[in-house]
Design brief:
Radius of gyration of chain A: 18 Å
Largest interface: A-B, 45 and 45 residues
CATH class of the largest domain in chain A: Alpha Beta
Oligomer: homotetramer
Distance between the termini of chain A: 31 Å
CATH topology of the largest domain in chain A: Rossmann fold
Structural class of chain A: alpha/beta
CATH superfamily of the largest domain in chain A: Vaccinia Virus protein VP39
């Protein structure tokens, strides 16, 4: 039996214990506790404030699911992409697979997590921070957007769901998504990680969905099973022009071929179809949600 | 904090704890320990040998996923259906939704679990055991099939994966699936629950898949996320004639309408599409599996 | 690995898990949840509100430690003894070993725990409830004492430490101990179980000690290691006349012989010496305690 | 709830979890995994191979109990003391309190634990490694003794109980204790930490006791409650001349005064009396033990 364990208390009555067989790094930034551990089952992991953020054995699922639908379906020939969060560098890695990306701007508030990831997570970033197209800013994503006139073709939110009191709270509101939209090109796409769609814990996802529907004309929930998160995981794709559900398996596979995107392990046409097809009870839960997250009435990830 | 917890050791380094707030029943049959508990999160649960078999809050996902693809796509006008296992009565409940089912034969080795389920799980069976079409046998499914000349249109395996030494071991082999096939009508369908498709724990599923491919011409893996199982869950659909992947969302929805199947919470055309679309890494893991389970070299659910 | 576990959260950061291999009884009284379980390590246990009260494998330690110093050193030739709490019947069993006991009055508020103990804990009571000297009252101990004029030679408090809101709170105060004293014969002895003397969790014990010192002239803490409680356990011996620390090993052994007390497993002269000798840091912690528990400022067992 | 926990599996059905709020050091020597952590409850701890060795909040109990009975009762005017193990330096610290100690030789096999302790556990050693009387050898204690002709007045075994395959196995046998005795002065004393005396886990202690009885004329078990070990802890005092049980409280207190031993928190005359008084069932379990540990039939600490 492992001597050390990390516990993820997903609910007062649902606790998952992961055996830890090595601690590579342990430290603290002004924003959070940071650890790089080796889980006996999932391999090397980035842990922030005691929650596994991504693991060696399945980060490909999360990062391919987050990046490829948006990057593939955005029609711009020369793309500017903004990543909010994403310190590990793996979202950046997936974005840079596209030759049409001219500029990949990454804005993360916590320079310390970026520094630690650069050193301890080489399999995640694979040199992405050194790519000439990469521009890294250590800043609050909302302040960054409020100060710039730049427009982007794709904006990706790779941020942890906000806990009460966290500065991330204002990155998950109607007002913020309106700012995001102002910085998107006309046929631009916004995509975000959006918590679990476990039907007993879906509130965060469904409120984000209803909030984005007030801002964008076409909004689609999609999901993928990322084992180290212990739950099925979800994303939201939002734009005014493009509906990812309308694309067939063949169209997705052809686009991947045309754009010379090789080496993916998780994503392709069939995976795309799977992700954007939701089971009936999940669709119903999402559609009936009426709450909207506003700056003065934000949403926290844990409600129990 | 709950005082009592049930632990599911999914791997020596991955342990999930579920808080228990009530024990309704605790006993023992010749085959297994039986408990009816109330999980603080998932409600009432049937627990066999310390493993949650199904929970009040999500049994609809598992049972609809197991039953409907096969029942809906089987072309027989008047159906005979065989359920192996399924003591809770919920698989039976879903089968009996089809008016074309003339006879629903259920064979479970453990009469004690059936008795306890009848008393403590009314929301599961909803009176299905009293339906005139139901025939219940307390028997070993393999012996039952070896002794009968009956043919069925659909055969459903709702059996726990076998542990070493369990009598269920010989219900998961090439020889047994050959016997199953002999008892299927020409266009009959066999469907089974087949463990998790978690990519690090997929061996049981993939060996069952390769074993069935030696017996049936058309074999398809499919999956659904059943939260109380802590992992994504899987099924296999096997027949000589019918490929469930060829049916479109519209065809599935039309079939449900034609057959007047109402009141489903999980399954419909979009759910069907989702279940039979697998992510790329899972397809690759399944296809490259070469092991076959034989009577003299069977498979156990836990390999660690 | 056991499938079921009972957890004892002794502190937010100190949690002990006991594997459970059988549930004999589970129910609820107006006062508490009651379970009879079989711990894999400690055998059959009485569990109230999720806390192990006593275990088959070590209840002899607790009950002998609680009863014998007081019964042995009390000089009355014909004794009346009052037990407050003690539903399992084991305290009663030890009291009845003394032929000089004429009357053993037991007052427990929870008749349901007594009923369950009678049925499921025969090794505890060993028929003590049927002894002609036993008088059992289902009542609140304080109300019982306030209504009676009876005097006792020994009064034993075998009550769980009070949690906030529990009716037991007023059985651990200066006012209550004053009532107790009024019901003691002149050379009577009061003895109580008094929580752990773990030096980081000693507050309950030390406040009881200082409270009793306001009521009795001679007060002595003593301790014994009861493994199933996970901590060293303590008791307090209070009287106006008798100091148990003054008795030598030989005197204790002679008294046991004179009174024909046979069959003890834990207690004798050397054990007596051990129990009443405290390590230096514990003595200092106890002596410097100044808090007193009053009816209007009572003490709860958990302060974190 | 703490995010990280260290688990101590004391038995397959008895598991204790300690919340960890900081990792100071994590590394590996040729002999063991070494961690310095901060337990939320017990403060800074040295952890070897996942077992807490000593904690800031209660190491004084263990180290005073181990050292003082032997150092105080040994009659030599000028003492040579040998410590086997004891890497934290706290055993050394207690030994050096005696002015009559001319030489304190410490032999620990693992230089890495010593180095880490020097850096991270200053409250333990308090500069003891720099005392001119200290001689530190990084060596196997048995090889060290076999090569030297030196005699010691007191030899202290501060070694973890051996696990199967550990090099410490041969430091807990009849043959080794015979070597120890050859290196003791005529009225010399050997003292060792000897595992728990929890009555269900006493085998290690009792076999060491019966083994030492074959080598020394006077052997006494004694115990102290060290909370972070989760169990009552034990020691054995062995010599040909001195029986620590014969000393009264007053004699112990006078010896402490004569030798000017100040600043102890745990040990004094009353503590001495407590430690050497054992409860009846423990005495019986120890006395009836007949097994002896030999080089070719050694004892491991875990038998389950």
């Amino acid at each position: 039996m492992d001597a050390y364990w990390i516990i993820e208390k997903n609910h007062p009555s649902e606790i998952h214990w992961h055996g830890v067989n090595r601690f590579y790094y342990t430290g603290k930034s002004p924003y959070q506790k940071i650890e790089i551990i080796e889980s006996s089952f999932y391999g090397r992991c980035l842990v922030l404030d005691g929650r596994i953020q991504s693991s060696e054995k399945d980060e490909f699922i999360y990062h391919e699911a987050l990046v490829h639908p948006a990057l593939l379906l955005n029609p711009a020939r020369e793309k500017k992409v903004l990543i909010m969060g994403g310190a590990e560098g793996a979202t950046l890695r997936e974005v840079l697979r596209y030759k049409e990306v001219q500029e990949a701007v990454m804005v993360d508030i916590d320079g310390e997590v970026v520094r630690v990831s650069k050193e301890y997570l080489p399999e995640w970033h694979q040199g992405a921070f050194e790519d000439v197209r990469t521009k890294l800013y250590i800043a609050d994503a909302r302040e960054f957007l409020e100060k710039t006139n730049k427009k982007f073709d794709v904006i990706i939110s790779d941020l942890s769901e906000p806990m009460e009191g966290s500065p991330a709270v204002k990155l998950f509101t109607y007002e913020f998504y309106s700012i995001v939209k102002e910085h998107l090109a006309e046929d631009g796409i916004f995509v975000m990680q959006a918590g679990t769609t476990h039907h007993l814990k879906i509130f965060f996802h469904s409120v984000m969905y209803s909030t984005l529907r007030k801002v964008f004309k076409k909004v689609r929930s999609y999901q993928a099973y990322v084992p180290a998160y212990d739950f099925i995981w979800s994303f939201i794709f939002a734009s005014d022009k493009i509906d990812p559900k309308e694309f067939s398996e063949e169209e997705i596979n052809n686009l991947l071929k045309d754009k010379e995107i090789n080496g993916l392990k998780f994503y392709d046409g069939e995976t795309h179809k799977m992700m954007f097809s939701l089971p009936r009870h999940i669709r119903e839960l999402i559609e009936k949600e009426e709450r909207i997250a506003y700056d003065n009435a934000p949403l926290y990830a844990v409600e129990d």
